[in-house]
Amino acid sequence: MEIDRQIQVDSVDLSVGFIYQCLHMKPVIQTILFALILILTACSAPKPTYRVKVLDTPAQPNLPPTQRPYAVNGQRYQPIPDAAGFSEQGLASWYGKDFHGRKTSNGETYDMYAMTAAHKTLPMNVHLKVTNLNNGQSTVVRVNDRGPFVKSRIIDLSYSAAKQLGVVGPGTAPVRIEALGYQEKVKAGSAPSYRQPDSYDVGPFMVQVGAFTVKENAYRLAEKLKKQYGTSAVAEGWVDGRKFYRVRVGLYDHIALAEEALSGMEANGFPSCFIVAR
Question: pTM value?
Answer without folding.
Answer: 0.56
